[in-house]
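User: Fold this, then the next.

Assistant: Folding the first:
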Amino acid sequence: MGASTHFFSVFFPSALALTLTLLLPLQASDQSGFISLDCGSPEDTMYTEITNNISYVSDAPFVKSGVSESIGSRMGADNAPFPRQMRSLRSFPQGIRNCYNVSIVNGSKYLIRASFLYENYDGLDMLPAFDIYIGNSLWERVNFTDTHLEPSIELIHITSSNEVHMCLINIGNGVPIISSLEFRPLLNTTYQTVSRSLSLQSRFDFGLSDKEEYRYPYDVYDRIWSTVNYYGQEPVTASATTGAVEENNYKVPSIVMKTASTVKDISLNTKNSSEYYVFMHFSEVVELQPNQSRVFNITHNENFFYGPLIPSYLSTLTVSNKDPLNASNLHLFSFISTNNATLPPIINAFEVYYVKDIIELETNQGDVNAITKIKSTYGIKRDWQGDPCVPMKYPWSGLNCSNATAPRIIYLYVQVFYEANILKGWITLIHEKMQNLVYRNLSASGLTGEISSYISNLTMLRTLDLSHNELTGELPEFLTNFPNLRVLILTGNKLTGSVPEVLMQRAEAKSLTLSVGENPDLCTSLKCDNKKNKYLVLIILSTIIAVLLPILMVTLVLYKRRKQREHLKRSIQERLLKSKNQQVHYSEILVITDNLKTSIGEGGFGKVYLGVLSDKIQVAVKLLSASSRQGTKEFKAEAEILTIVHHRNLVSLIGYCDEAENKALIYEFMANGNLRKHLSDSSTTVLSWKQRLQIALDAAQGLEYLHNCCKPPILHRDMKTSNILLNEKMQAKISDFGLSRIFANENDTHLATRPAGTFGYVDPTKKSDVYSFGIVLFELITGKPVIIKSGTGNEIHIVDWAKPLIVEGNSQSIVDQRLEGCIEICSATKFMELALCCTLSTSAQRPDISDVVKQLIKCQEMAQNRTTSHGPPINHNFSYTSIGSDSILSPR
């Protein structure tokens, strides 16, 4: 018998095979090594299925999520035409990944079978589709084609650990379900490949049969053999015999090997582009006479495969390819009798598998131990099951891991997470590109107690977010020991003590983004030693008193003068805030600014100084430069109009100075400066995504009031981040509205009236204000300035830079890196879409500012719907401030 030994392998019966034949059925009879899970059955379930004598138990100990369902509730459990293990199921309506952890024998070969039956259990009549992962690799996509279909998938796999992690992944096409999960140990000498797993395509039993399929107890490995009527086959009438068929290591059931069919060709239509292995099982079932012979060769796509083959009477011979068959749409196996053969070729059984490269990665054990302790400490119950980092495409919510053979946890966001809805059209591309960047930290988890010491074991952490919880105690020193930590967010807790000096120094050096606000009892200064020596305190106090005594006399002398100034300030304040006469003299400007002592900024219209009225009310005084001035009549008319424009998102103009050589505007003071300062790389604070959404909405509502609620409408003409100011509560207000018209300055290049798409801003219309606001939206989500300078010195407008990246699906590259892990997918996607709409080249295509407000409210709601808020809900039903019936400006 000849063969191409490099292309196929043959298994003959032997003494060893006979010995194993005698032993393994005995082991299989008690189902040694079998794991049979009835998914969705009650936790204490244990029974023997009468159709196959297999013992099943509940899957509850192997999975920590899911909902138990039953098809019996819709069909009648006693009359259901399915075996018992298929009458219940477990569905997974919550979370993207839900995983089974099954303990097995490391290094052993297993047949793993998962079965699924929908049977319209939920009454929705919507067939689901979902993915099944083993370790880090996609095993199969389960795609139902019929409500009553009972699909199952099989994998032959050698385990590389003592535990198998099998995860069901929600891909957005219905709720994943599973009916049964089975593990069957195989001999490692069977189904051999080069370190690769095999997924079953088909397994056939040829010849006449009394049943549609055979499995355990006929098959000691519990393979399911389906009878087939292949075109052109003729069942062979077997010789009458009661003897068993002699087995080889594959242990094909005797009842399968006692039937055979003559065959000329077997065609195999492959369902994917994988490589394939076939296993053909032969046994002569006719006791041949001396003048009879059955000898044939096998070809594959007209190329020699194996031969000559002479089946032995009641003895199993298995033929398979040693090397995988290349991917092809059609594989044709032909069985050709030799010239001296008197009987046609036969075949008893046929198996087809396609190659699956299953990679069983495991997260670094130290990180697993640490995150498990953290889960236990804080009682976290979300989808934290299975391996934390595997599959690497779907790690635990709130984690991101390194790309390594033993992945390490590098990001930890201990907050509540909700999966984002996948948007349609080209927005889907944005979602797919961003999901590896954004980690859905939307709201607080209600964690209590001190910061867990187990976090210190996650030595590769780059980002740690424990914000908006109820954590107490001092900041542990181990937070200073993470070599790769780049972002530490502890905002909104009840932490006490002081921030470790090392962290403060790293934050000042900008090697660490540190957010520790909203912790009232936490000191954030480098000098926080509250345990001063009592004697030192006395000495210092004595020294201070000694120094103050000589000064006291001078102070008394100056007191009267200061009271006079305060009286003057009070009169100015009453005139500005309580009357309609809001014009002041330049001498009064000098009083409230202390002779222009403190400059707090400089804009296109002049310098801005800090002013103080009585009761320590602060104001901002803008002195207009010579190039910004116009006639007294026009200035006064326009200024008087602006002083009666009131809205919570507009910086109030509370007074003005109109003298020949000195013109000034007096505004309410905004403690936190302008938005551009907070977005710049030099800012020591990082605006959160929630804050950026609120700032965008505040600014849009202010602009909406100017456009649609003032009569006549007011165009801003100079909408930009430096004209959006923030008060002490981080509420955004628009400043300098209308000034570009009142104080036109030829040198203000940012007001150039060039077409949209070029550098700078555009011609003054409502839609040009909307275009400028779209630029503000891009600055908010990217953190970049309007004009971006490359490393080579080239300049590009932010719109020209961002639009192509978004359209190409590379939107993750435009998101501000300081928001990494802190931005919510759906709201960010809609935010980008809105920015694109606002900056369309044709003004008619741009939305009205009222539509922009509505869309920003939706963005905010997307984020808030995934947030467990500890405060009162934000009220979007605001009303405009009344300014009197005699005003030329009034709300719509």
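Now the next one, as you asked:
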Amino acid sequence: MRKKLRRLFLVTFTGSSLDPAAPIFQILRRYHLGGVVLTRANDNFDDRTDVRAALYALTGLLQRANQDFPVSETEATPTPKAPQQMPQPLFIAVAHGGLGLRTAELLSGTTALPSPLAIGATWKPENARLVGLATGRELRELGFNMLLGPNLDVVSNPNPANPGDLGSGVFGGDAFWVGEFGRAYTRGVHAGSGRRVAVIAGTFPGLGSGDRDAAVEVPVVSKPLDELQAVDLRTFAAIASLDGNTEGAADGLVTGPALYAGLQGSISRETRPLAIDESALKVLLQFDAFRPWVELGGLLVSLPLNHPGVRRDYLAGQNLLASNVAYTALMAGNDLLQVSVQDEDGLAALPATLGGLVNRYKQGGVFSARVDQAVTRILELKQELYGKFGAGAAINTQPLEPLVPMDSEMAAIAGEAFTLLAPAAADLAQRLPQPPAPGARIVFLTQTQLVRQCSQCRPQRLPAVDGLQVAVERAYGPIAKVRSQNLSSYDFVELADFLAGVGPIPVPQTTETPAPESSPATATPTPVPTATAPRPLIADALRDAVWVVALLQPAQAAEGAPSSFQRLLATRPDLLAGKKLVVFALGAPYHMDAAALSQITAYYGLFSAAPVFIDVAAQALFLDLTPRVGGPVSVPAAAYYLAERLLPDPAQKFELLTELVFPSGTALTPSPEPTLALTPAATLSPTVVDPAATAVPPTLPEGAQVKVSTTMLLDFNGNIVPDGTQVDFEVLYKDANALREIFATAFTMQGVAQAALAPKRVGGIEIRAVSGSAISLPAPLLVSDVAGETAIVVLTLTPSVTPSAMPAATNAPAPQATVDANSPANNLKAGETAAQASTDPRDLLSALFINIAIVGYGWDAARRNGRGLVQRFRFALGITIGVWLAYDLYVLKLPGAGLLQPLGALAPVLCAAGGGLVALAVDRYKLQLLAGWQSGSRRLQAAWLFMRAGGFR
């Protein structure tokens, strides 16, 4: 009983000591808890030595301590028949996001990862999978087996003034895309770790619309339930979905500390955070999107039960036992309870909490059943990670492998995340026609964060104050595009001091100081280390600069007033007049107001402070990198609203693919899978259904339908539209006074919408699809009576270009159409079949190989006949023209090409070979004619000379 309850707790502890006598090891050896969480705030990481080696040793000792079973406190001498306890792995959890995030825990010893917002800015879920791959592999190497992430919150309406703003810690502002990135990231973590790291996504059911900082307060989300389901809950439904590849499904969810008006009704003082609200959380877990996941063992991890806001507002200073919060959290549906312990006294208070739960468990009933259910889920997840339990399970016995960072992959992601935020792409070339000239003076203003891996560790600046300057010098100094003496860098602390009128700190001059109390005979000067040339004052540097480049990362714990740069724009326009002003957002891009943005030459989004993103900024400054257009979140100051950009683009005329289906369900004219991208260019090819071939009665059978599918719909950013985008299908009956009606409303799935039309009238019909302002190309359809029998002629659009809009999209070959031999719409003779909608690539390769073979033969023959190089080239060109002319005659189905169709795949081969052989024959005949002409010419010339000679005599 006690053993069960102990496994429900996931605790933190202070320090990184490897001493077996440390409190955490004693607690684990005695109580065998469910798991521990390592955090930077608790000094669990120390980079003063080798942080990887220290972490590897620490995680190994934690596992060993948890599997060390001393003699039971209640049984001094165990009986031989007593069952032996089976050692079980310990959850060792960490939150590991992008470098520079407030929630980032590991600052060194691992690959510097991009922020979630930077990943979302690429619009490629495959990049999320790559980052997850690196995360899973490196965490497993260090001994972690649980990741508290990714964050699935959605910032649909960014509010820079909100203290709970999540900044670059989210994938974006659209629920569909956040869900796609979340699943891809989870899939990568599972693959990279070999399924040895559990993914616990947060913060359920969403904090993107919270009104305060969830780390220290209890936010309120005032959305109604339908909006919660459409936005916040949608991302968690995606990562809890068991459809398709279950590797993308999360192993668990972290419940949050917020209040939800849409779920809990009117918010009052008595309303508890959802994580400890028994009725509201249970109702939420019964939604169709989550019930199957929960029933199959999905784990719920509670918020820290002594969360500052919860403790202040709901515990009123009571301890966990007196408040019954652990009991309430379990009954609400949480399986694993986080307890954030900041000191040894807090860890020592854990036994009292366990004792209170033991008393409740002894009473049986619903609580004991709930505990058993939670323990079962915990054990099932551990078994999924490690297989069978036993001594040494989860303990690494191999030496730590050196870090192999995925820097090249992260650099590629940084380049793809680089986004133009303002001005419009059409105006950028006018504002920035050229990069900085070699002699141009450039000032770099960098907003940095001062971070530490532990309280006693060396502070680090992210990024370095001169990080961008160094990147520019490294990339462009050796090729003389910049001169170091013309570059200067300042941080926002100096900028804030300058704007506040604080004088600069004088730079000491280099001097030589003799040793004190020394005589002239024995005096030896003590040189002071040589100082670099003092930098110009920031005011002078700004005044002399031609370019001013700023790196901003608001909404982070950055040094200097976050508004310092906007104050510079507002109060000192004299220093910036006539200069090129380029700004890079290293965090969320929506903190710049419209007035400030109007003064900026170019505003770019990088969304991460990792070093590879600073390198991208250097390339972008010198116009060596083309930005994408369209960021992952709204930027109101730039009039960029994400919801509008994700609507279907009306400039792209998408197409319709049709398939005729009779009541039996037989598909008479199969169409390609709707994975083709859209293109305005298209050709019409008739698809005619033969009613006689399928025993269609003289009248159109009741229930016959034309299945209509769109090709892939793209949004204004060039990506597929989010799932659930509405598409209206309308039909125009041309022979019924142009009657037009909407016959179906559908919603897209992976960019495609489908509907079915049951034709009501005989005559010409035209089908269109409308989504927003986007209208498809028409799909003509003819229902007519032919010789007393009903035939349906569908004129389908054959897409001419097939780019893939999603990494997973593939283009399917167009199948052969079925033709009505009795229909006047087609003049094929008996025995002929319709041409394929597209050419088999193998036919093209066959023609190419035949071309090469015949040219090779002809070239060698011409060489043996003594023909010159120019003549041989002409000969080869003639053969090539012959081969491809004959091949094109077949492909274009010109008169006579149908005679070769019964030969199947041999037809294009014979055509190409015939064309080449004809070219050889023509060349041979031309040579014979030339030889005959030359012979006759020589005879005529000889006769003329003979006549002239006779005449002279």
